[in-house]
User: Fold this.
Amino acid sequence: MSLARNSWRSLRVYRMNFLLILLGTVVQAVAMLAVWQALLSEASPSRLAGFTWHEMKGYLLVAFAANALVSGYTDLLLAGRVLSGMVALDLTKPVDFQLARWAETLGFLGVELLAVGSIGVMMISVVAPVPLPTGWQGLLFVASLCAVVPLKFGIVYLTGVACFWTQNYQGVSWARAGIAGVLSGSLIPVELYPAWLQSLCQMSPFPSMVSTPALIFVGRVRDGEAALLFCWQVVWIAALWLIGRVAWSRGLRQITVHGG
Assistant:
């Protein structure tokens, strides 16, 4: 709890960085809405690979929310600890390092949810109402969107730990953002990719971070299929957590502490 409060305080201090990251996500979402509206207005009969404009609006709004949650602050702070050597001090504390970083992520989450909710309402009012899922479908969507948080944490945690070997944060962060943007379906729905690229996406955790909650939200997947996709999210959460622990233990071998 104290770690979550500390991360909230640090976010207040560096709020301009957070706002700039959020602004970039908003600009991307607005641009994608404009592009897809133009594409679907030219399509006949107003469908593209089965997507209508109403479905695409909902898909892109969920993609915006998923992209805004668990911002780059988590791996930025972790990478900073690794590159500065502060991680050596963490080893002396009776706190699990991965759990501590998870607590910090939850500290940021409250502000991110408030920002995403406020901006999402404004965007919906501009692009016209989007139908909301109800009943079992609605519950699956909420569960799927909640699963995005630990999923993204798993990815950004690995990005930060990778600095043990790269000694550089920006290159790894940019590579992660580029790969995630393509494989998650946040730019283009995975269903529109050629078959070989769809197969590549499904072998990664990235579609679970955007495509899964977005498809459930717009009703492209329902009932058993939607539940199966949520189960895959849970599997990837467990897998990424375990991979993160292995990467952390291997990364510790790269630490060199000087002094006497």
User: Anything to note?
Assistant: The chain has a mean pLDDT of 80. The radius of gyration is 19 Å.
